[in-house]
Write a structure and sequence with these properties.
single chain, 597 residues, alpha/beta, 7-stranded antiparallel β-sheet, 25 strands, binds 5-amino-5-deoxy-1-O-phosphono-D-mannitol
Amino acid sequence: MCGIIGYAGDENAVPIIVDGLKKLEYRGYDSAGIAVFGEGGFEVAKQKGRLAELEKRLESLPIAGRMGIGHTRWATHGEPSDINSHPHLGSGSKIAVVHNGIIENYKQLKERLEARGIPFASQTDSEVVAQLAEHYYEGDLLDTVIKTTNALEGSYALGLMCLAEPDVLVAVKKDNPLIVGVSEQGNFIASDVPAILKHTNRVYYLDDKEIAVLTKDSVKFYNTDKEPLAKEAETITWSVDSAEKGGYPHFMLKEIMEQPKVVRETIQSGINIDPLHITAFNKIVITACGSAYNAGVVSKYVFERLCRFRAIEVELASEFRYKDPCVDEKTLVILVSQSGETADTIAAMREAKAKGAVTLSIVNVVGSTLAKEADHTVYTAAGPEIAVATTKAFSTQLVVLYKLAVQFALELQKLTPEGAKALLEEIAAIPGKITELLNHVDDIQKYAASCIGYKSIFFIGRNIDYAIALEGSLKLKEISYIHSEAYAGGELKHGTISLVEDNTLVVALSCCQRLYPKILSNIEQVISRGAKVFLVSNVTQAEESDKLSLLKLPDIHELFSPSLSVIVLQLFSYYVAANKGLDIDKPRNLAKSVTVE
Ligand code: M6R
């Protein structure tokens, strides 16, 4: 995790880097720092805490320079502190480094350097990069970076500056994202597009072990044999506004409200991949982490019902990678990820490929590792998602998975062309129904405001309602810090119901008309044990009572109902957290893109 940015240009690098770090803060926010090339050498400001703390420090102790690097940290090695913040400098203050990733052999390297009398200042793995680079430096930063990275094991995206080369910024990556942006006003490196979108939409995506050498007027690329590489710049189509709050108090609320638009765009952009010939496979495995995994769980119900396929499994990527999975060339492995950089999902993809499986990634970030390495990629059109809690990316993942299921079912002859057409029309109607639902924001806000005192909130549902309950529960605990769990309604009586008492809220999902009587009896069971219930349903018989509050959803095909229930669950979590006054976009201990194990 962590976000890095660098700038070489004509302007003062400090405000450019601070602004970029604001866009990268979702990647980590326990400390931040900047190093610039000032009049007399490196000028460094590092500060524990949110970026705002660094800004305060820069106000009282300003630094300035036309080239610099910045970092926002999610601590892995060494507690959050000023000293452990990046940039790290070698002990001679000749090399400055920002790093995102984990240097796995840092202890061995550190011991070797310490044995040569080199003193270390921090507890981080990253400092070893600065110390090693300084140790190796013989007059050429590019040579030094090649030599240094050859010695590193683990993952890294690095930005380096050298005291002896005041015009040169060098960047390199392995297993962590890094882009290079080019503009008339200067050149940039960054962990992600939103950090530099204000300045340029022309970017190069670095591949592993590719090195970029930037000056204010030029960008050159090399491999680790120092051979020049010809790379093509890509034009980013995201608007500058898409990475700004646009008047909303939080990115999360803005991103919730964007859902009709981005879901429509995702549906319309279609599934542009070579035909997969699903009939050639005997198994589908969907693997992902967090909310993306929950999207996979929802889709399992859809794939099963529509495709009647022999074997459809959903696996947490962190489990899949270590279980010696039973996959082969007759398995289609679907990887779902907003960032395309989640370490466990990437590892799952590599494991699947090594076993001969065909891989299909569903990814939001163009040029990300999953997008580049999977055999096939379908992009979601969510645009940049900044809030740590995913909302719009999740919704776009759902519709891609629905469409894939319809496509496969047609190919497997489990659906007639007319049947498929009818389902695609249902899918096309989802954005309009989300808009309809968003008219009830005030009702949800009011109800959520009355829920901040609950110690525990359970989410229940049956079948596909259970699948989306998982996402509701994750969203709530992630941003409101209220304990929460999701259960299949029928499971309550097998243990969990013992936790239900007076101060418990149960959020019940019911969009399966045929299962309404079943969930209703679960609702009665929890009410009789003191719980209050919030029912989210489109079932005609559903009605309010003194212990039960109802939010009615628009009518929708059962299989696609998660696309509506999730909007209520997102807003519910959002307003619970907002009423508790929490830092919604940057919940404690979390980072958006989990690029470490
Ligand atoms: O970028 P990815 O979709 O691969 O991220 C996976 C999870 O880390 C992510 O969905 C996480 O669970 C969200 N913060 C939940 O809101």
